[in-house]
# Entry
Amino acid sequence: MKSYLENNHVKLALQLVNFASKINSYATTFGFTANEVTAVQQDAAYFAWVVNSYTKMATGQKQWTAFKTELLTEKINAKMVITPKPLVL
# Structure
């Protein structure tokens, strides 16, 4: 059976946020309670935050690894080594 959910986490987060933004208009038709609608919206927002935070952490990891490598090599004398920016989640 074909799944309509995205396999890529970033695309899935976008898909869930899109679904959550439209669920209010279908709540009455399908008999969803206000609590269920709120739960869907909160879950979508949380998953989007997790995916976004993971992406930032992965980027930060690469930057800090490159920084460490520069400190451990002779490249220090050739240029000023810049510390990566702190992550803001």
